[in-house]
Amino acid sequence: MPPAHQAPADGPDLRAEGLRLAYDDRVVVEDLDLVIPSGKVTAIVGANACGKSTLLRALARLLTPKAGAVHLDGRSVHSMPTRALAQKLGILPQTPVAPEGLTVIDLVGRGRSPHQTWWRQWSSTDEEAVHEALRATAMTDLAHRAVDELSGGQRQRAWIAMAVAQGTPVMLLDEPTTYLDLAHQIDVLDLVTDLNRHQGRTVVMVLHDLNQACRYADHVIAMKAGRVAGEGAPADVITAAMVEDVFGLRCVVGEDPVSRTPLIVPMGRHHEGPSDQEVRQEGTDVSAVPVSGTTG
Ligand SMILES: Nc1ncnc2c1ncn2[C@@H]1O[C@H](COP(=O)(O)OP(=O)(O)OP(=O)(O)O)[C@@H](O)[C@H]1O
Ligand SMILES: [Mg+2]
């Protein structure tokens, strides 16, 4: 088996080298090297304003680097024709805006436009892809509603449906669970898992919920102030020390009783964690026992 960092021969190879990203003179990301594991689900985590969306936008060519480059399958994304890139890589931005009055089905249909040419117009394949994406995101009943008249969560699912319909081997999702109730969050993350496992799609998603990142990602990239503070398997990256370093938050780390992945339980000023002694006491509820923590 190749190491996680090495792209399989047939999978998309997305990487960034020496990236510097800035808005005018304000540098947000500096000297960043990144390899996205092919055929895997990667979660990017980090504090507000650390540069996650900026990075995702650069990977999708929505932002031009001041230095360095993003390569997809050995080619700079900035030298690729727009259509060729859109056939390989799709992005759900953090705050997408739909044209006024556009219906859900038309929005999702726009995801198919990279697959059309003047000689190959709308086809039954496009039709199927749209309906399948609507079904997968439970948006079929809302297909003919205007996107700008939906609730925040419904609107978010409409955009996810568009990204799904685009059918790209690489999907970049910036906080795909924003606005969603807990059940719909899990639906979307399960859908991401399905797209990865059954269709081999490479997914990179920004998540704020560290427990969901641990459950749903194969690989985690923790960012701090525009740099990579840690990357690797979730259990290796998402530790109490990392949470304190990256978020300035003390926590205890237990085990998710469902997925057996790390479970982050934050403390905060008004709640202290159990002392080491309490944790060692016999009879402590095993599901509440931290495996590591910044207690005391
Ligand atoms: N269009 C812009 N123009 C100028 N500055 C920007 C722009 N977009 C983002 N920034 C700045 O760049 C920095 C990184 O922003 P970014 O959106 O990448 O953060 P983030 O990690 O995605 O945060 P969040 O978790 O809040 O979404 C912030 O300081 C932000 O104010
Ligand atoms: Mg963001």
From TrEMBL:
- Tell me the domain of life: Bacteria
Keyword Transport in record = yes
Q: Where is the ABC transporter domain?
A: 14-250
Biological process annotations from GO: iron ion transport
Q: What is a GO molecular function of this protein?
A: ATP hydrolysis activity
UniProt entry keywords in alphabetical sequence: ATP-binding, Cell membrane, Ion transport, Iron, Iron transport, Membrane, Nucleotide-binding, Transport
**Region span, Disordered:** 263-296
**In what way does this protein cross or attach to the membrane?**
Peripheral membrane protein
Xref: CDD domains: ABC_Iron-Siderophores_B12_Hemin
Specify residue ranges for compositional bias: Basic and acidic residues. 269-283
Q: Where in the cell is it found?
A: Cell membrane
- Quote the cellular component terms of the Gene Ontology held in the record: plasma membrane
**SMART domains this protein is in?**
AAA (SM00382)
Protein name, UniProt field = ABC transporter ATP-binding protein
Organism field: Streptomyces spongiae
